[in-house]
Amino acid sequence: MEKESIGRTQLRNRNLKLVLQQIINNPGTSRVAISHELNLNKSTISSLYNSLAEDHFIEELGEGASSNVGGRKPIMARLNKKYGYTITFDLGYRQVHAVANYLNSEVIDHQEINTKGQPIEVMLQYCSDFVKEMQGEVVSNQGLLGICFSIHGIINQNKIVNSPWIEMNDTDIVEQFKETFDVPVILENEANLSAIYERDFNAGRYYHNSITFSIHRGIGAGIILGKRLFRGKQGEAGEIGRSLTLLGPNTAGQSVESFCSEEAIINRVKQLKHDDTIDRQAVVDLYRSKDHEVMRILLQSCSVIAGLMYNVVTTLNPDAIFINSELLAELPDLLTEIKDNYQDIAQEELPIALTKNTKFATLLGGCSLITHYVLGMMDYELHFEEAN
Amino acid sequence: MEKESIGRTQLRNRNLKLVLQQIINNPGTSRVAISHELNLNKSTISSLYNSLAEDHFIEELGEGASSNVGGRKPIMARLNKKYGYTITFDLGYRQVHAVANYLNSEVIDHQEINTKGQPIEVMLQYCSDFVKEMQGEVVSNQGLLGICFSIHGIINQNKIVNSPWIEMNDTDIVEQFKETFDVPVILENEANLSAIYERDFNAGRYYHNSITFSIHRGIGAGIILGKRLFRGKQGEAGEIGRSLTLLGPNTAGQSVESFCSEEAIINRVKQLKHDDTIDRQAVVDLYRSKDHEVMRILLQSCSVIAGLMYNVVTTLNPDAIFINSELLAELPDLLTEIKDNYQDIAQEELPIALTKNTKFATLLGGCSLITHYVLGMMDYELHFEEAN
DNA sequence: TTGTAGGTTGGTTGCTTAAACAAACTAACG
DNA sequence: CGTTAGTTTGTTTAAGCAACCAACCTACAA
């Protein structure tokens, strides 16, 4: 909403970025195509294009197909992925997951190490090592451009406000990595990154408003409205796990999270089975072996999730819902259950889909976010391809 | 998000609007002040300013106060309110409310007539008459600029999708009035207009994200995110009345609306008292006379509303909440009740305020909306003053 | 007290600059 | 030859700049 004034230089800058956006989102486009798309004069585009080319943002692919009535063939161009690269870490409860990507989001390398029970310092040491490794290996024009951390907690103003699963010991991740590597460092909530992934990769492209439910240890949601991530006043938007399951006089209602997060479910099964070694895999196995009690607990949870979903959809009327959950990925039956429950309540069609490749989604979301940032294109819609 | 390309003309146009925005939002500003605010050169501003002046958008107020160290006095300017005027109607269940406003939102005239039980055609005939009356009376530069209708129902693409209280008989309001008066005609949901009112007048100015609960016959919410009205995929965002009060296995949970809308409350009191003549005023009187059962019902409703509020706040993390309700306006005790309940659940501070002047809020919201529209400034933040 | 010089701010004017634009051109095709 | 892609060269236009005038203030001297 707050429009900024535009002088001559900002005009040029903006148009430069619009051209770059075209090149990123339509790999194998040409100058004329861009000119047509942006309603700017051919010569203007040529000028802008050449500026970008000088800065090594462009990779030319030779000639494309000419039209069927003759005429010169266009020179196809796409983003020069080797302009530079970014690194994204997911600081999980059980492990650290790391990935390095070229500017077009192509994965250069990824690693995962188990850090369960380890303090944050050890996790960050691993991250630091990974960055150094990449700096030694990856060849690119500008080198490392930026780093993103996926945090399972609440982020505000690029600071961790709340980290329920990992004790942070007042560690200032941003300061530390910015200092060491001299690149921008961004922290973002894991559910938000999942949402960004859905927006910028594959499916979500055509949806303006989507909500990504992230159901792991806790329950959160990433909210995309008007193609923009909505973070709320203090970055707490989407903390739907705290929603009440019961509105009414006895306001001491249970929160959704305390009832059907993975954590809660595992605990309930633990109690039920008097077995403290139960973990997610055990729950999955029990469900698959059609254990009656476990099935009941999970189906109950699905019903609650469906209700929560209905309430959120009712307030936001989004185009689609995504769910990012390892548990559901392993037990797709439950997705059907949720969908059916939702249908019963809503009587309305709404695309509900599982996020494919649960863990990578977050990382790629982070890759997209930091890429947007380093290009100075936070408010530009960028699409990326996910390799298969 | 979708950025449009900017050529020379659009640049000029945009800067023109930015200058106009400054003049609207800071009545009694000067060229230098604008130049400073927009970071554009003095001479550039002068040029833009003069263009606007030629188009009669500007009213000069003579000289302002000079600074205490000497120097020429600035020439103060504000929006020429008599550039033109807009008209807004509220098509209520019981009455039609009409208002005409100058471009600065100043009320020229307003009327209200009782139309309870009358068909839509009669209501619109009255509206039509009002417009003609204004066209005869109001003197302004450009005359009537646009018309806005506040609809107690769902609007999508400027069409009525759902009108629970008034039978529309397939009447195409937009077509009809656009045809007759040859100006833009906009329909918008009443709760959304309330939200716009809170955003553009008085209080809400400083909030980026706010939610306005409109509790009348039904329950709806207007959602302002990033200073922008959020309408959802099909304009159904904010239909929170449909939220479930209970998430869980028996998904046939009650909707909030069926439980504590004004309609529902009155019906419950009717049943309880075996008196079919009960209306809002009767409920108010009964509460004031401390009728036990009525108090119970209302307090119960407050508790549900507070829970609903908590859930919505949990998903959106807004800066503030507004409530627009005639019932609450008459019984401010209930607001306290809601606030207390909310506090109990949330344990967090959040500004919760009643909309003053319940009925006018919607109309002024409509005025703001249509004014934005006719100025071609839908995406510009405009502030208006409400006369006292 | 008055008058004038010096400083300050508001706004205009005329010229410069740079980016978009337009049209004519070359290149490369069917 | 017609068509399409891209470049070149020159034009237009809106922003930027610098010098200016206008209108105010204060200080201070006659």
Automatic annotation (TrEMBL), chains A, B:
Classification via Gene3D superfamilies:
3.30.420.40, Winged helix-like DNA-binding domain superfamily/Winged helix DNA-binding domain
Signal sequence annotation: none
Whether S-adenosyl-L-methionine counts among this entry's keywords is no
Keyword NAD assigned to the entry: answer is no
Identify the keywords attached in UniProt to this record, alphabetized: Carbohydrate metabolism, Xylose metabolism
Q: Which residues cross the membrane?
A: none
Checking InterPro entries in the record gives: ATPase_NBD, ROK, ROK_cs, WH-like_DNA-bd_sf, WH_DNA-bd_sf
What is any one GO biological process for this UniProt entry? D-xylose metabolic process
What protein family does this chain belong to? Belongs to the ROK (NagC/XylR) family.
Tell me, what does this protein do in biology? Transcriptional repressor of xylose-utilizing enzymes.
> What protein name applies here?
Xylose repressor
